[in-house]
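USER:
I would value a second opinion on how I read folds in token form. Give me a protein, with the fold worked out from its sequence. Write it directly below this note and I will take it from there.

ASSISTANT:
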Amino acid sequence: MTYILVVDDDVELSNALATVLRERGYDVGMEHDIESGLASMARRRPDLVILDVMFPEDMTAGFSLARKLKHYREEFKDVPVLMLTAINRETPLRFGPSDIDEQWLPVSDFMNKPVDFDEMFEKIEYLIERNSE
């Protein structure tokens, strides 16, 4: 069964994501801070990570975790990361798929909150399928 790890400090959103992902047949883990997310990945390697950008301890913690996964942790560098964030609503910054960059923003895809679940499922299915080839 495909394992998806949701790393987001928004507990309600994480629970909603887990519910709809489980209904689609995915095995889902949830962590609500960066350190717990990294520790969880060390215990069980996910097939895909859904990662928030902003955490209470650091407005850009998700960017840092994405870089850590891709550049410093060999065992995770091929795990797809779907960045799911409200940073564009909360700040004057405007991030999107065109900002994906191997060095600065090494994620597989980018989505804004609020979540369009149909779009999210399309992206997840595509990323998992692409990674299994």
